[in-house]
């Protein structure tokens, strides 16, 4: 049966020019959503907007850098000007980095990743909250398995993804009784450009091919699972069984979990 939860639902998707965000936009468009699509690469964003309209959705493309508070405010305002409300905010935009903290020449790349991965979800959420309260809407946050576990690198991606759990978990408690729900999702490896585009120590895209691409989940499957969880207003979704076990094991044998994580996430550059 076709899911119609998002039919005529006003949805903002950040990071909609590629990867999981693009797949979310197209899946939502197929359900008849009224979309606002945000990312920096205007041409790609317009392409996704065009394809969304072809699939039966409405789509507005708004070039946005989510690390800018002002641009996030404008993103929400333009959505409300166009559609009159916001029903769902999907905080998806993100970037990764490749360098260990101990190898960073300065903190420029670290601050950039934190600005996109953490504040890039806080800013749209703050701007959209009055409208989400009015519509008793949904907030979705893209975390990662690195939201739960440490990494072989003390990098800003891991720190930012951990910070999202604290922020959105607290916001969920603040919003209890308002009708606004918060769904945190933790995808496993997904076949996108996230790792290829990860910033190197000089802030340039790494450009390599990660060993994790083999067997990765497709962005389309990931998008479908995210939307099923959001439709059902679940607290959390997409936690692989291994990660559930790992969370429990970390309480009783944290050193063992550290060693496993170190093997699986050691730097590739
Ligand atoms: N792929 C995985 O294995 C995986 C696993 C767990 C979690 N995730 C999470 O899933 C989300 C989507 O990642 P993805 O895998 O789809 O990566 P992706 O293919 O690299 O797509 C990232 C998206 O974020 C946008 N973006 C990056 N910086 C931005 C900024 N400053 N302002 C606005 N948009 C920005 C990019 O668009 P522009 O470059 O055009 O701005 C692009 O649309 C991220 O939050 C990521 O952490 C991914």
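Sequence proposed for the structure above (269 residues):
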């Amino acid at each position: 049966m076709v899911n119609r939860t998002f039919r005529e639902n006003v949805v903002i998707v950040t990071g909609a020019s590629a990867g999981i965000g693009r797949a979310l936009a197209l899946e939502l468009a197929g359900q008849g959503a009224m979309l606002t699509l945000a990312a920096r690469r205007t041409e790609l964003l317009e392409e996704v907007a065009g394809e969304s309209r072809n699939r039966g959705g409405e789509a507005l493309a708004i070039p946005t850098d989510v690390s800018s508070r002002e641009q996030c405010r404008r993103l929400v305002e333009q959505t409300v000007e166009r559609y009159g409300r916001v029903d769902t905010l999907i905080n998806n935009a993100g970037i990764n980095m490749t360098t260990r903290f101990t190898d960073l020449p300065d903190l420029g790349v670290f601050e950039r990743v934190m600005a996109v991965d953490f504040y890039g979800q806080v800013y749209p959420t703050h701007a959209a909250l009055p409208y989400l309260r009015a519509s008793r809407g949904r907030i979705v946050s893209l975390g990662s398995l690195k939201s739960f576990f440490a990494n072989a690198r003390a990098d800003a991606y891991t720190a930012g993804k951990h910070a999202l759990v604290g922020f959105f978990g607290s916001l969920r408690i603040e919003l209890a009784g308002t009708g606004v729900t918060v769904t945190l999702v933790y995808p496993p490896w997904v076949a996108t450009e996230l790792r290829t585009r990860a910033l190197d120590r000089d802030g340039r895209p790494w450009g390599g091919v990660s060993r994790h691409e083999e067997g990765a989940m497709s962005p389309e499957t990931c998008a479908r699972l995210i939307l099923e969880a959001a439709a059902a207003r679940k607290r959390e979704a997409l936690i692989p069984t291994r990660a559930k076990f790992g969370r429990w094991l970390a309480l009783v044998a944290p050193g063992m979990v550290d060693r496993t994580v170190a093997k699986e996430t050691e730097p590739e550059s």
